[in-house]
Amino acid sequence: MNYLKEINAFYDRLETNPLSGGAVSLWHALMQVNNRARWKKKFTVAVVVLCYKAGLSESSFKRARKELYEKGYIHYEKQLGNQAALYEMISLDFYSEEEYCHYQPSNKTEGARQMLQESDKSSDNLKPNPDDNVNHKLDGKLDRNADALIKQNNTIQNNTYTTAESRKLEATYEYYQQHFGKLNGYMKNELTKQIHDLGEDLVLHAMKKTLDRGKTNWNYTKAILTDWKSKGLLSLDQINLEEVKFKKTQNQRSRQIPNRMSTPQIEPVPDWFFMHKREQQEKHESNMKKQQDKDQQQLMEDVKSRLQAYAD
Fold first, then answer.
1. Integer angstrom CA distances of residue 246 from 231, 250, 251, 254
2. How confident is the model at residue 256 (pLDDT cuts 50, 70, 90)?
3. I need a surface site. Which of 5, 77, 251, 312 has the fewest CB within 10 A?
4. Is 267 left (phi over 0), alpha (psi -120 to 50) or beta?
């Protein structure tokens, strides 16, 4: 499997075959485990591990797993006793939308065998049936994907080499966990969507920019990515060029500041400023007079009380 292509195909498939949030998180967790296992055809993983990676409770996990199975995203088999279930990821990049809807196999091997049998027929026997959901372009796709189908049909398909794209994707996940915090199911979906839209290089560059500015907040990184996207900056070269232009503009402004300071302009002071200042002064003087009167009255009462006490 190609990690990046599978993710792209996954989000393309969501447009016509939507999933709940829990199912999306579980699919990503299973893909990450399978990638770490170097894309084994079938692999086992404990429920508690998947619940932790996907951020789901056990009941939510069971509903999400059932949804993925029923909608053709995964295949799994329960084992005896306390053994972990056996999982198999169904390649979404392998099928087109029409092929997926038509075949919907219980597992990839059976679906591939069916497609191989049809690919052996002549093009005359592949004329579309009005009741058939298969697209007219199926025959061409079968020819182009013949080698891939043979590999899919091989039951001894073990490990495949981890591609550069999948390694970069994992590196982006690990960078987030090292500098921003725990990568739960929601954040993994959010990070994967940004990678799907802009690529790993831009997302990683935005996270580094966030750290350079003393921040560890994903929303800050997301704002940077949104700004780049709105400006049409979709590559590192474009972003670096924009940053050079920005620094050049800042330097020009800093050089212009002393010139403005050397010839200061005196702006007229508005009348309301003087009126306000006068009112403040009058208010202050009035308060001072009141305080003096109060102090004098207090002094007179004190002298009077002492004279009365002396007379007694």
1. 14, 6, 9, 12
2. low
3. 312
4. beta
76-90, 109-123, 170-184, 270-284: range with lowest mean pLDDT? 109-123
Q: To which residue do tokens 């004190």 refer?
A: 302
DSSP 8-state code for residue 270: P
Are the C-beta atoms of 225 and 198 separated by less than 8 Å?
yes
Helix (H) or strand (E) holding 20: none
Angle (nearest 5°) at CA 267 between 266 and 269: 125
Contact (CB, 8 A) for 188 and 25: yes
Among the residues of the chain, which ranges form H helices? 3-14, 21-36, 47-54, 58-70, 97-103, 108-119, 138-144, 146-153, 164-179, 185-198, 200-212, 218-230, 236-262, 271-311
Three-state DSSP at 300 gives helix
pTM above 0.90, yes or no: no
Give the three-class secondary structure for 109. Answer: helix
Decide if pLDDT at 89 tops 70.
Answer: yes
- Alpha carbon 163 to its chain's center: 22
Report the DSSP beta bridge partners of residue 75.
Answer: 88
Structure-model confidence comparison of residues 210 and 141, the more confident one: 210
pLDDT of res. 235: 86
pLDDT digits (tens, 9 = 90+) for 136-169: 344 444 344 434 433 444 333 333 334 566 777 7
Distance CA 155, CA 161 (A): 18
For the chain, the residue count is 312
* Interatomic CA distance for residues 250 and 244, integer angstroms: 10
